[in-house]
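Students often ask why we bother predicting the structure of a whole assembly rather than each chain alone. The short answer is interfaces. A chain on its own may look different once its partners are present, and contacts between molecules only exist in the joint model. In this exercise we take two input lines together and write out one structure for the complete complex. Read the inputs first and try to guess which parts will touch.
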Amino acid sequence: MSPASFYALIGVGLFVIGFYALLVRRDDLTRILSINVMGSGVFMVLIAAADGVGATVDPVPHAMVLTGIVVAVSATAFALALSLARERAQ
Amino acid sequence: MTPLWSALCVVAPLLAAVTQCIKPRWGAATSIAALSLIVLGGLGLASALIESGAQTIVLSGWSPPLGIVWRIDGLTVTMILMAGIVGLPVSVYAHHYFSSSTTANRFFWPLWMLLLAALCSLFLSNDLFNWYVTLELLSLSAVALVTLAGKPAALAAAQRYLYASLLGSLCYLMGVALIYSTYGSLDMTLLRAATEPNTSVWVAIGLMMAGLLMKSAMFPLHFWLPSAHGAAPAPVSAILSALVVKGAFYILLRIWFDLVPEAPPHSVTLLLGAFGAAAILWGSLQALRATRLKMLVAYSTVAQLGYLALFFPLSATGELGQTAIGGIVYFMAAHACAKAAMFLAAGNLQRAAGHDQLSALASTAQALPLSMFAFAIAGVSIMGLPPSGGFVAKWMLLSAAIMNGAWLWVAVLILGGLLSAAYVFRVLALSFVDPGPPAEQEAPKRVARSSEWASLMLAGMALLLGLNAMPMLELMSVGLPAIRP
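Now the answer. The structure tokens for the assembled complex follow.
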């Protein structure tokens, strides 16, 4: 097995673990974390996809992962703020 | 001129959002200006399309696979015009709706403009990863808008909406990653030429479609929609039901046109159609049972979105597919106008009565004949009666189904129309029942004239779509890719 497909498989595994936790757990923080775990899984798959033919590395997936991290950070911040607001309202 | 017109659609709302963060008091004025510019840009694009067909713009001269390309065809322009034209009356309405509570007023305008910028760039993009980014921008601003209602119920609904939507986008992104690792490209034009039927493509398409079905609240993934759309402030509900769910469905259509490498298995289209039929029945029955007016309208959205899923089985055969596409795009436009009108009218009743319990709304309904009239006209389009945009759309879907000999879908379409008539009349009946002795009722509060006219204008547009169908259909079909045999 090439390193790239190993990373891709780990990525899919993380995605599935996060997906399972998001469906099963009811706790807010766990849910937000499980969304992050899912996201990391997708990023792993993308980074594995960057392993091009021969010695070249494809930069496009790296750019996608960077953008994805920015989106994930803002979404996480918003989700945390929302759960805090909800706790305060109760 | 095309690059200018299309840039206008994205830059105008972005500039408005920035301005509104600095000068909150200019909220309504700058929003209406930005929306007018979007309509202008949409009209400019439409005339360019009619002159010279579908257009592509290579952003800053970087060609794909590295750069990003915008593609503008009839579907793009119809959706942009829909967003601008529905947005204008909603903004006029929101100006009066939010004037009392200053925090909500302060945050509504920039969020609404950011949502609009995300939506317009979504419609213009033709690139799988760009769609992911615009989808996330769209949903984050949409969830933030739901929280403006401020009540604990709205916060809970917003949270559920956020989780569902993040789950949907991550499934979509996983599909994008698979496509990229197979074909090394994200641009839809390149992918259309490249994709072949193999396992990884089907898995990727399955993941992307599952994510997008979640985001467009297709049954049985609709669970987050009624509470979010029902709990949001009225203008926000109108924006969510009319525009936001259409964004995800737009990408779904594009994937269906360009990425699906061969006619998908019959069982898949049948399953999607069955989800649509279930949505129509379940949504309509819940609308019939709803005790609150806004929940009734929200469940009606679930039912109406079911019609969109009927597109998949109906478009399965070549030539009739074009009728089904026209019908579905028309349906999206007509539903946007009619549903926005319904939510605004419902908001007027709620505002005047101080609640939206259907059982106690009769006296309020009779005090606001203009809003009830708007609700009735929008109802005509939702039911699919002539002359309305909803009628044209359903007629096209129905004729595609009849020519296919797909009697099951014909039955679903007709039954759906009857059920929607039943729940619309539940509301219209309020105008005719005896409200009880006036002493027991609180006098309805005053509602701004312009709020009533805003809902009536939207309903009128749903009607106008029915009277002026041919030019619209011609515009929609410019450059639409044919479904693969």
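Check your guess against this: Chain B touches chain A at residues 65-66, 129, 132-133, 136, 140, 143-144, 147, 151-152, 155-156, 158-159, 162-163, 166-167, 170, 173-174, 177-178, 180-181, 184, 186 (CB under 8 Å).
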